Amino acid sequence: MEHLNHDVLIIGGGAAGLRAAIATAELNPKLDIAIVSKVYPMRSHTVSAEGGMAAVLRTDYDNFDLHAYDTIKGSDFLADQDAVEFFVREAPKESVRLEHWGCPFSRDPDGRISVRAFGGMSVKRTLFATDKIGFHLLHTLFQTSLKFENIHRYDEWFATSILVDNGRVDGVTAIDIRSGELVSFLAKAVVIATGGCGRIYQFTTNGWIKTGDGMALAYRAGVPLKDMEMVQYHPTLLPNTGILITEAARGEGGHLLNKDGERFLKRYVPNKMELGPRDILSRAEMTEIKEGRAFEGPYGSYLHLDLTHLGEETIEAKLPFVKELAERYLGIDPVHEMIPVRPGQHYMMGGVHTDMHGYTGLPGLYAAGEMACVSMNGANRLGSNSLTECLVFGAEAGIGAAQYATKQGPPSFGNPVQGFALDEEKRIYDKVLKHEKGEKISTIRTEMQKAMEDHVGIYRDESSLSQACELIGDLKQRMKNAVVEDKDRVYNTDLVSALELDFMLDVAETIAYAALARRESRGAHSRTDYPKRDDAQFLKHLMVYETRTVPRIDSMPVTITRWKPEARIY
Amino acid sequence: MSQDIATIRVTRYRPEKDGKPYFQDYKVPYRKDMVVLDALNYIKANLDGTLTYRWSCRMGVCGSCGANVDGVPKLTCASFLHEFKGRTIKVEPLTHFPVIKDLVVNMDDFMHKLVEIKPWIIREKESPPEEGEYRQSAEELERYDQFSSCINCMLCYSACPVYGLNEKFLGPAATALAYRYIEDSRDQGKAVRFPIVHEIEGVWECTLVGECSVVCPKGVDPMLAIQKTKILGATNALKSLVMPRGGGK
Questions:
Q1: Among A141, B11, B69, B183, which residue's Cβ finds the most Cβ atoms within 10 Å?
Q2: A219 in the same domain as A175
Q3: Which of A379, A407, A435 is the last residue of a domain?
């Protein structure tokens, strides 16, 4: 098998991966860096982020402690407070770097970057570029990365396993999608930054590529996944497609209405209303639906997002993408008409366990972005913290990897690493690709998505979660005989889908098991059988470890620095 | 919701099996709100797992899913099936690009051109982040803003007859992006970037057909960028401007 050598490998070309690559390249220009991404970096799902990125730039009314407190309260006190404090201090520097690299931020009349209100943030601190910050951030980072001659790229290469020998990472195996060949990449350090796993759910804002690859890669390499039960539901998705309507629509003054035309949030978050945190708003919508105060449509129940009072000028200037999406996909002009919305899966608070510097605990392996769990988001992430998180911890992971790689000698392609790579080749081409009789990939995928949607959704209980664990376990068995219809080597998306589904089933299982183990309600995790937060038992992170049978759950204390857990009232 | 049946005629080309491309028809039930991409996904999941195409966001921003739909370059996620009611909908790979498989085209050429135009801010000296952001007025932003909206979907190259004849032509998207940096008040790299866009295969090749601006799904006007670059070039030549040194590679 062919093998390629680089000093630092970055798996994933979204915000966190690109930021890591740039940080590595800047720290040590002699390092040979490679970004391995299953899509061209500018296709990464960062591109779909809309509302903005949070950072304390307005020190006349804002400060680090306030940003930290908002984030910690938003997390329902499950965030590690040292990580949050580090994050808020780095956030302004990272934002300004991004601006210096060319991000076309929206501006105030004095030329400063504009800020807007966002859910759970007590003051205006969300920087934005109309309502397309993710797109602009991603393209700015990608285009900036092109100036570094020591950053190489492998676009449309799909990582299938992490090579570990003697307790350290030696590289990865990856398929060159275009040729269909499996290749070993040897590296001194690896940063994984492949994003979330929304596609394990039926109804999600996430793109097709969000399949939890990096989570499964690290999990299979022995690294625990943390806070996996914490799945964020966003309150405003278009009911038919799951297309996200940004929280900025509410930040700019939009209202949520039930079928009686009532701003129902006054009964749930009277002090914050539409700017309450996402977990509480999504549950409020579910209650309105359950109690019969929602609209009924061909795609189930929905509420109204009303922007009509904002006026055409504000909508055109601040929310042009909302207008474009509503017009194109619903034939609705939000200047004059209400937008139908309902909650849906949006983000994973949980992910690959790392410390504050992106280190996973496995020598040579670093992680950042939605895929990682530092944990600064705890049980519920505040909108507009995640892009900044990608920058802050992407940079940390890149620096960590660069420092480690600078000290390390190169790995060699001897045994057992070569053996692992050959085993991987057999798994993919002799098993996954060869099966002739069995179920379609799409059948298993659809059943997994339904199981997660029905049993591990906004509300959970012992019975639904036990059922989910069982269903996912069965699907994992059935997956062993699933059939890849396309037998070609060249650009085989059917094969990639099968490998992605195999990853997603592992990740789905960790979510279901962790959710079952957390017998309390906290943040996004709502157990109808344990409706209260239970700090005595559960002020801790659940850590999920891969075993040959079912996942093993362990725990880790939450770091509290200055903010004692208190009732979370908005 | 009522359902109709659409006939989707897709170009198939699998280099390991097929000597040349051919069409394959699929019948897809659809509702009013379904797009061509939904039809492709329906085919892939239910009828034929070998059909090959790119996609991700399904909301018109990742730029992956471009194809020629009924002969016109479009994002398949933004082309509604009902608009072709009663007709066979032909879905072909974007023209002017080598085909890797089915609807997947090779866009290496653009990826190289993107690097050539140096799409990053070039400064003689960078300020440390502690000094805060570079100020930029709304008017300064306005001068390059639309050109920064390019999603690299390649529809403009597919529509461009000049690129069809001469693949060395820098082309619409790359020129729009070059102009985006040239017009950015924070950038000091004009001297480095100008020769690239003004070379033989740069803006002067454009014959002002304007199809690029028509097909752009994001309202970018690459032809305007090309025009403005020409004007800037002419002005600079007249002034015999002494260019500052740029910091690009």
A1: A141
A2: yes
A3: A407
Tokens representing A261?
A: 């035309």
Mean per-residue pLDDT, A75-96: 98
**Shortest CA distance from B52: residue in chain A:** A493
The domain that contains A21 carries what CATH number? Answer: 3.50.50.60
Is B52 in contact with A45 (Cβ distance < 8 A)? no
Cβ contact A174:A1 at 8 Å: no
Cβ-based contacts of A44 with chain B (< 8 Å) = 62
ipTM of this predicted structure: 0.96
Domain count, chain A: 3
Distance CA A515, CA B238 (A): 70
A522 a catalytic residue: no
Interface of A with B in 305-364 (CB under 8 A): 321, 324-325, 328-330
Q: Note the Cα A167 to chain centre separation in Å.
A: 27
Query: At CB < 8 A and 24+ separation, what contacts does A426-433 make?
Result: A428/A160, A428/A175, A428/A182, A428/A495, A428/A499, A429/A182, A432/A484, A432/A495, A432/A498, A432/A499, A432/A502, A433/A484, A433/A487, A433/A492, A433/A495
Domains and CATH numbers, chain B: 4-105 (3.10.20.30), 108-239 (1.10.1060.10)
pTM of the predicted protein model = 0.97
User: Do A307 and A367 reside in the same domain of the chain?
Assistant: no
The 3-state DSSP class for residue A10 equals strand
User: For position B196, what pLDDT does the model report?
Assistant: 86
Shortest CA distance to B119 belongs to which of B64, B175, B168, B172? B175
A136 touches chain B (CB under 8 A): yes
**Is residue A55 included in any domain, yes or no?**
no
Identify the domain containing residue A253 by its residue range: 236-343
